[in-house]
Amino acid sequence: MKKKLVSVLLVAAMGASVLAGCGSSSVKEDGGEKKSESSGNNVLEFYHGYYQDESEWAAAQVMRDIYDEFAQEHADGDVTFKPIAVENRDDIVSAQVAGGSFPDMVDVGGDGIPQAAISQDLVYDLKTYIDENNLQDAVGLNYTQHDQDGHIYAVHDQIESRGLWYNSSIFEKAGISTDAFTDWNTFGDAMTKIADLGDDTYGYIAGQGSSYIVNAIMASTDAGKKMVESELTEDTVNSDEFANAFKTAAKLDQANGSEHTTDDNGNLMAEFNTNGNVGVLFNGVWNASGIDASLVDSIEPALFPGNVAIASAGGGLAVANNMSEEKTELALEFIKYMTSKEVQEKIFTEVQANPCNTTVDLNALAETSGDTATQKLAEACAQVNSADTIVIDMKYTWGSDVDKAIVNALMECAVSGTDIDARFESLQKELLALIG
């Protein structure tokens, strides 16, 4: 499997047309390749994925406003800054890399920076700039997770941070305490008590969410954590650690019921956030903003059993190598701007995400806001940031195709009567074929 710089941006596919707002430009298609409407040596073009209309996703407008503020501040400079909102950043990057070039600047999406771009020396190494400007705390987790043999090729302004959310009212009704999160045995016992309530309430949303059970269990041992943080190998596929993690998750899913599985958490999210008939939801800290007002006092954040959190720096902002000195300087200034406390505070309070800058006082911001959801966001972020074990999301080291295969296998195992051992053996063969 190709080694790549991992990334994630918290966006959903929300429409077929490219949308722009508040000064951010859109782009036109030409032969499958995206080209900007205006370009030149005095324009630093920045591709990003916040194309959604404000009515669809308010955070997208917040991010566009942040970008446009920087553009306005440099409107009279020798080089101007042009944010361009697109749906297919990865396609743009891949097409340009195939031709031996790289976008001026891009907030890379889920596929990350192609290894081919790095091997061709098309991407600027940010590490020296970070070190010389003492930005280690400002870039936070990026500094370690994005280190590739002493090089840093991207900085993400947000940290994808995952734990779980639970409905304390359901827990109380079922006679469960937070001791349920001691380990996966106590978790399973708690889910059984919820199922035994006898109403429409059930334990947790499985399927896509269950891959995080596998991820967290792998991270609970030093050997397993090392496997998750590396590319998937034949040794890992055949390891006791992987077998235990998968089979534990599969048994929990089968007990939870196949009717409560989905390959996309969003399909059942309302059952937790709005209807309040699910005990646990495996989702990121950003879920705080999706909780219905009627449930905000009942829903609380927690970590995976064993005090494990899943946190990924993602790909984020990447800069082309060999641009003019003026364009490179502006690109680096933009990275400094995006990781500054001022902007990072907006990312927390308005985007509702975990900022990368470790010096931001999240609790103070939440207290000042007076908003219960924001206060729970701060609590969730604090839990993730201080977890005993913090591990990267395995889909960024093992690949999205591997992650999908694991989710599909788990969904099949959730069906009553499925032979979990046999399905695991089949999964092993699938994964070995994927990694070649």
UniProtKB/TrEMBL annotation:
Gene3D superfamilies: Periplasmic binding protein-like II. Residues 1-20 form the signal peptide. It comes from Roseburia inulinivorans DSM 16841. It holds the Pfam family SBP_bac_1. This is ABC transporter, solute-binding protein. Keywords: Signal. PANTHER family: ARABINOSE-BINDING PROTEIN-RELATED. InterPro entries: Bact_solute-bd_prot1, SBP. The keyword Repeat does not apply. It comes from the Bacteria.
